[in-house]
Design a protein that fits this description.
Its cofactor is Mg(2+). It comes from Caproiciproducens faecalis. Helix 12 crosses helix 13. The chain is α/β, with parallel strands linked by helices. The protein is globular. The protein has 3 domains: about 120 residues, Phosphohistidine domain (Glucose Oxidase, domain 1); about 110 residues, PtsI, HPr-binding domain (Enzyme I, Chain A, domain 2); about 280 residues, Phosphoenolpyruvate-binding domains (TIM Barrel, Alpha-Beta Barrel), CATH 3.20.20.60. Helices cover about 45% and strands about 15% of the residues. The structure holds phosphoenolpyruvate and magnesium ion. Magnesium ion binds next to helix 16. Phosphoenolpyruvate binds next to strand 10 and helix 16.
Length: about 550
C-alpha cells in the first residue's frame, strides 16, 4: 500500500479504481517531412475519418435533439470539404514540406484571423466551428482524439489538473472522486467538486504518477490522503467510516423543512450555489431555501460557441420553475481568469485575474451581455428570478448596466415578450473597492452578495489558484472580515439585504460571526446546507 498526501477539498470517502484523464493532444508541432505524398495521404485519411464521425454525430443529434441541433454537424461537414480550406492545407504540406497536423493548424489560424477582423456575429460563430473541425483533425492525425475518460463503472479520476470546463463536462454518475497533481482548494474546480458532492484531493504532487492508472485506491477527502492498493484491513476500516458518514447524513435529513433559526430566534436564509440547471435536484434534496448564486458562466464553458438566447432562456426558466417560487439569484457571466472559453477570443493577458473578466467583458462586448439579459428577463416571467453582476468596482458600472437593461426591456416590450420589470438587481461584493464604497453602491441596487473567494484574493493580493500560497491565503484575515462587516452595515443602513455566496459562507467556525454581523443569507454548496442549518439551530447569541 502506498499513501499519498494532498489537500482535501470535500469531506467524504471514495473507494474504487483510479483512471487517468487523457487530454486531447492539440499540439500540432511543425515537422519537416521528406515524403509530402505520405502527408497528403494522411490528411486525406483523417478527413475521411472525420467525415464519417460527423455523419454519425449528425444522426445521433437528429435522433436525440432534432433537426435544428443536428444542422451544426452539416455545417461542419461543409467546412471540412470547403475547397479553400482544403487547398490551404495541401498547399502548405507541398510548399513548406511540413507535416499534415501543422498544415491543418496553420490553415485554421489563418482562417480565424481573417474572420476575426470582420465584425459579423455569424462569421464569429463559424470561427469556433473551424477551430472545432481542425482540433478533431489534429486529434485524429496525432492519435489523441480522446479528451475525456471512458469507463463503465464509477471511478476515481486522476489528472494533472482539471479546468472548470473539463470538470463540467464529466459524467457525474461515473465519478467517485477527483485527485489531482496540482490545483488549489479555492479554485473553481474545487468549488465544482464540492457542489457535485464528490470527494476530492488536490495538490498531491508529482508522486501521483501514471503508474497508478488502474490501481484500486481509497480517497479520504477529510485528511487529504490517498491510499493506493490498500490492504484488506484498511479497506474494511474506510468502508465502515463511509457507512458511518452516510448515517450522519441521514440524521441531518431530519432537519429538512425546518427553519434556519438560532436558539434565541434569529433567522437566516440558507441558499445553495449551483453551476448548471441539473444541480437544482441537489438543491431541493438538501432543502435549500433558494439559490443564492447560479454561476451562469458554466453554461458558456466546455463548448465551441456561445449559448444562444433560446438555450439560455430554457436553462434559466427550468431552474426558476423547478424552484417553485423560491428565489433564484442568477449571476451574469463571469468568464475570465481560470474560466476560459476559447471562442470568446480574448487576448492573452499577463495577469488574467486582474484582467478583462466578468462585467468588464460584458460592458465591452455588449452584444454578448444583451443576449444574456434578454434570456434572463424572458425567464423572469416564469419564477422568482433576481439578477446579479460580478466583479463590480464602481457606481458608474452599475449605472451603465442599468442603461443596457433599460434598452433590453424596451426591446422585449416592443416584441410583446413577457418579463418581470420588478426583477431584483444586485451586485457581487468581491473587490475591496466595492466593499469600501458599499454605502454608495447600496443606493443603486436591491441586494449585495459577498463573494469571499475573490474578496480574499484581492484583499490579500494572493492568487486563489496558486497552491503554493495556500498557507498565506487566510480567509479569516481581519481585513477580509472587516470588509464583510462594512458591507453588511452599509447594506442595512440603506435598507437592502446582504448575503454571502463565497466558500466562507459554509465555514461553520464563522457562522456565529456572520449571524452577529446581521448577514441575511448564506449561500453554500448543496451538501453544506443541512450541516449549516444544524449549526445555526445550535447557536445562541443572547449571551
Ligand atoms: C467569489 O468570488 O466568492 C464567488 C462566489 O465567485 P467565484 O467563486 O465564482 O469567483
Ligand atoms: Mg468571484
Amino acid at each position: 500500500m502506498t499513501v499519498l498526501n494532498g489537500k482535501g477539498v470535500l469531506d467524504g470517502i471514495a473507494i474504487g479504481k483510479i483512471v487517468f484523464y487523457q487530454r486531447k493532444g492539440q499540439e500540432a508541432v511543425k515537422r519537416h517531412v521528406e515524403n509530402t505524398e505520405e502527408e497528403l495521404r494522411r490528411y486525406q485519411d483523417a478527413k475521411e475519418q472525420e467525415a464519417a464521425d460527423l455523419k454519425k454525430l449528425y444522426e445521433k443529434a437528429l435522433h436525440e435533439a432534432g433537426e435544428k441541433s443536428a444542422k451544426i454537424f452539416e455545417i461542419h461537414q461543409m467546412i471540412l470539404e470547403d475547397i479553400d480550406f482544403c487547398d490551404a492545407i495541401t498547399d502548405t504540406i507541398k510548399s513548406e514540406r511540413v507535416n499534415a497536423e501543422y498544415a491543418v493548424k496553420k490553415a485554421c489560424d489563418t482562417y480565424i484571423q481573417t474572420i476575426s477582423a470582420i465584425d459579423d456575429p455569424y462569421l464569429k460563430e463559424r470561427a469556433a466551428d473551424i477551430r472545432d473541425i481542425s482540433q478533431k483533425l489534429i486529434g485524429i492525425l496525432t492519435n489523441s482524439e480522446s479528451d475525456t475518460f471512458t469507463s463503465e463503472e464509477p471511478v476515481i479520476i486522476a489528472a494533472d489538473d482539471l479546468t472548470p470546463s473539463e470538470t463540467v463536462q464529466l459524467d457525474k454518475s461515473k465519478i467517485l472522486a477527483f485527485i489531482t497533481i496540482n490545483g488549489s482548494v479555492n479554485s473553481h474546480t474545487a468549488i465544482l467538486a464540492r457542489s457535485m458532492n464528490i470527494p476530492a484531493v488536490v495538490a498531491v504532487g508529482e508522486e501521483l504518477g501514471l503508474k497508478y492508472n488502474g490501481n484500486n485506491a481509497i480517497v479520504d477527502g477529510a485528511s487529504g490522503r490517498i491510499y493506493i492498493a490498500p490492504d484488506a484491513e484498511t479497506v474494511r476500516l474506510f468502508s465502515e467510516r463511509r457507512e458511518a458518514k452516510k448515517a450522519e447524513q441521514e440524521q441531518l435529513h431530519s432537519l429538512k423543512g425546518k427553519k434556519s433559526v438560532t436558539m434565541d430566534g434569529k433567522e437566516i436564509n440558507i441558499y445553495a450555489n449551483i453551476g448548471r440547471p441539473e444541480d437544482v435536484e441537489a438543491v431541493l434534496r438538501n432543502d435549500a431555501e433558494g439559490i443564492g448564486l447560479f454561476r451562469s458562466e458554466f453554461l458558456y464553458l466546455g463548448r465551441e460557441t456561445y449559448p444562444t438566447e433560446e438555450e439560455q432562456f430554457q436553462a434559466y426558466r427550468s431552474v426558476a420553475e423547478n424552484m417553485q417560487g423560491k428565489q433564484v439569484i442568477i449571476r451574469t457571466l463571469d468568464i475570465g481568469a481560470d474560466k476560459q472559453a476559447d471562442y470568446f477570443e480574448m487576448p492573452k493577458e499577463a495577469n488574467p485575474a486582474m484582467g478583462c473578466r466578468a462585467i468588464r467583458i460584458c460592458l465591452t462586448r455588449q452584444d454578448i451581455f444583451k443576449t444574456q439579459l434578454r434570456a434572463l428577463y424572458r425567464a423572469s416571467a416564469f419564477g422568482n428570478i433576481a439578477i446579479m453582476f460580478p466583479m463590480i468596482i464602481s457606481v458608474g458600472e452599475v449605472r451603465a448596466i442599468k442603461q443596457i437593461i433599460h434598452a433590453v426591456q424596451l426591446e422585449l416590450s416592443g416584441e410583446g415578450a413577457a418579463y418581470n420589470p420588478e426583477t431584483k438587481l444586485g451586485i457581487m461584493v468581491e473587490t475591496p473597492a466595492a466593499a469600501l464604497i458599499s454605502d454608495e453602491l447600496a443606493k443603486e441596487v436591491d441586494f449585495f452578495s459577498i463573494g469571499t473567494n475573490d474578496l480574499t484574493q484581492y484583499t490579500l493580493a494572493i492568487d486563489r489558484q496558486n497552491p503554493s500560497l495556500e498557507h498565506f491565503y487566510d480567509a479569516h484575515h481581519k481585513a477580509v472580515l472587516t470588509l464583510i462587516r462594512i458591507t453588511a452595515e452599509n447594506a442595512h443602513k440603506n435598507g437592502i439585504f446582504v448575503g454571502i455566496c463565497g466558500e466562507l459562507g459554509a465555514d461553520l467556525s464563522l457562522t456565529e460571526t456572520f449571524l452577529r454581523m446581521g448577514i441575511d443569507e448564506l449561500s453554500v454548496s448543496a451538501p453544506c446546507v443541512l450541516p449549516l442549518r444544524k449549526k445555526v439551530m445550535e447557536t445562541r447569541m443572547d449571551r
